[in-house]
Amino acid sequence: MTATVVLDMADLPMQRPSAPASAAQARARFFNSGNAFDVKLPEVPARLFAPPKEGRFGVFDCDQSQALGCGFAATTPLMLARYVRIAVRDALLPLDVCATGSVWYVISGGGRVTGAVDSFAFGAGDVFLLPGASGYRLEAGAEGALLWTVGNEPQLAFERAQPAPVADATIDAVHYPAAEIERQFELIFSTGTRDETSGRALIFSSDRQAAARNLTPTLTLSFNTLEPRTHQRAHRHNSAAITLVVQGEGCHSMVGGERCPWEPWATLVTPPGAPHSHHNEGAHGARFLIVQDGGLHYHARTMGFQFLEAVQARLQA
Length: 317
Ligand SMILES: [Fe+2]
Prior knowledge:
CATH topology: Jelly Rolls
Shape: globular
Keywords: Dioxygenase, Oxidoreductase
Largest sheet: 6 strands, antiparallel
Structural class: mainly beta
GO molecular function: dioxygenase activity
Bound molecules: fe (ii) ion
Strand order of the largest sheet: 1-14-11-16-9-8
Distance between the termini: 74 Å
Number of helices: 6
Radius of gyration: 23 Å
Number of domains: 1
Order of helices and strands: HEEHEEEEHEHEEEEEEEEEHEH
Protein name: Gentisate 1,2-dioxygenase
Organism: Variovorax guangxiensis
CATH superfamily: Jelly Rolls
Strand content: 35-45%
Oligomer: single chain
Number of strands: 17
Low-confidence stretches: 313-317
Pfam families: Cupin_2
């Protein structure tokens, strides 16, 4: 009997060691440059998630793990966005942050964070950052609280990694109260911009991350604005983006050629590499909060930011 002759390297099946002398040797597998690169992962869907309806309490994942083909909750391959609604005073929500960091925006109500870090009170419009840890507790005030949060849980889950203890974390808890955010916006709006600047946006960082201009080593946070009847120039980048609509009547985004109308407090997913632009056809200024895995891409030198539209086109629009 003659063995089948394989003419093309790509047609070779996965190879195993012929005579493994140990369990560790037996685990070896071999591919080649013809058959190792045929794994096609599903695209990241450009999806819009709505906030939980009134009267629904708990943690609501913006989960598209099924579409992404991964075995853990994920909004993009490396980030997870969630809404958290806590009931009125005395309701404590125990929470573990299985990420190196998570950013939070308080949509409505107020409350207090206790547990793994020094406790602090939060109110509507606040942003805060928490290092990964177990044993957080969220407590709502008299009006309850609705929060939005994004962390890099999927990045850690991909490698089954655990966050460092708070004392060894790369970030500390950071609180950006709404009044301070407004002060920063006033400062930005009191200045001019160069034509090439991509709109007016507030970038959040901290004492320990200021050199990198990041929020965490992995994540970036930007609070973008759009004047009425303007748009942010079409562009692309290799970081995925998760956007929360904060104020956006008459606004929409174009993502990969698809029109995505904004809904109040909706979460919009911009897939990595997708051409996109944001449009305000309404009568009021728009605001939207954008978390990206930009820190990771800056570090890897893979950001690949590119404008896809000339400045002149923006001025005529
Ligand atoms: Fe973008």
